[in-house]
Amino acid sequence: MGRRVQKQKEKKQLNIKSNIKYIILAVIAVIVLGVATGNYMYKKKYAEMLSTVEIDTIYNGISVSGIDLSGKTEAEAVEILRAQLEQPLETQKLDITDVDRRYQYTFVNFGAKYDIEASAKKAFECGRSGELKDRYNEVLSFAENGFDIEPEYSYDENLVTTVLTEMKPEFDVPAKNSVLTRTNGVFSATDEQPGYELDIEKTAEKVKAQLETRQAGEVIAETKELLPTITKEQNMQATTLIGSYSTSFTNGPGSEGRNENLRLACASVNGTMLAPGETFSMNATLGPQTYANGYKDAGVYVNGKVEQGVGGGVCQVTTTLYNAVINAELQIVERSNHSLTVAYVPMGMDAAIAGDYKDLKFKNSTNYPVYLEAYITSNKIITNVYGYEIHDSGHTVKYETEYLGSVPKPAEKITEDPNLPEGERVVTYTGKVGHKVSTYKVVYENGVQVSRELFNNSTYRATADEVTVGTKKAEVPASTTTTETATTPTN
């Protein structure tokens, strides 16, 4: 009995071991099957992810400024963006307006542009970095939710300023001063008119703000008001004769050219208005003294001599005006005396102009306008300065010249002439002794001298005598030589 039990027990244990073995084999089979299935599914998913992200076109759902670039190559994207973003800038208008004027520009006039290549590159590179799974999920998100790229946009601020600066002269409306005229001894004045000019800085800010919107639009220009410098009221307060002077000239044969030059110069000066603080230039007022402008040949000083030159004589008008101006006690800015003395004013009282190196300039140093008058009558040049008289009736001014001494002639200039007999001298030009003078301004109040001050110094050059000296040797007569030979003793 005991033996049977023992056998049954052993059989039972054997069955258990067999079952465990089968169970283990089953588990192993399940595990192997699961691993195989997992590998298959992983490979399938990997292949799907790889095929989704590894393409040579922009992923679905990606756009630039709302322009869909799905499935486009980077090169195709560049062309699409260029057509839809860049080209419109060439026609997109930005108008700058005023009350009754409109200046039309396109965005490209201000250097507006998109960085097309960079935008296309950015669109193509979206989803192309990182782990495969992350890229795959990002690409799916693009397709489902979309992804829009803001293109890089810019404009040139310097071009904004340049465009406005170029526009400014056409845009500006200058203020109009009141104009004072004198007809038949009676003054009249026109009304002044304000003007305005473009405020470049403020307008530029508005233009840049419009460019930032990337939309066509209108900018109302910012302006600054320009006030006239001379009003009608000021003009009508400046009609008192405050300085005058006259010089005489001849009207004989050969003086026609010079006298025409005098007339033209007077016409250029006559009616000139100077605002308070404004500087007058005789050279600028006369303009080029050329044949085309009507000027004639007449005597001018050249290297210490009188020669014929276009515009000769205008210095007499300059001198006459200079004396009227100093009698009006306006501020002299620039004055030069002539190289040689002149006959129509005392030494020290002349004023010359020449080229761009000698000019008469004076400043309206009053608080009121100044009106200049210049005309010819009875062989006289008359110049008058009208303005506002600030002095009392007892105020007078005189100019006195003090002679300082002469300047000796330099050594004579000798020219040898082989056609003149040796030793013979011919004076071809008689030089001049130079002079130095000082001019003083003397002020009187009710006949009593109150001041005497040095006003200017003038030096007039000395010029040398010019002499031609003969160098031709005297010829020895042939007969004299024969006689001497004949009387020579011989042995």
Number of strands: 27
In whole angstroms, the N-to-C terminal distance is 210 Å
Calculate Rg over CA atoms: 51 Å
Strand residue percentage: 25-35%
Q: How many individual helices?
A: 11
General shape: elongated
Keywords:
34% helix; elongated; single chain; 4 domains; alpha+beta; 3-stranded mixed β-sheet; 4-stranded antiparallel β-sheet; Ubiquitin-like (UB roll); 491 residues; disordered C terminus
Task: Please provide a written account of the structure.
- The structure is a single chain.
- The C terminus is likely disordered.
- This protein has 11 helices and 27 strands.
- It has 491 residues and is of the alpha+beta class.
- Helix content is 34%, strand content 31%.
- It has a 4-stranded antiparallel beta sheet with strand order 13-21-20-14. A 3-stranded mixed beta sheet has the order 2-1-6.
- It has 4 domains: 48 residues; 139 residues, Ubiquitin-like (UB roll) (Roll), CATH 3.10.20.800; 154 residues, no CATH class; 100 residues, Single Sheet (Resuscitation-promoting factor rpfb fold).
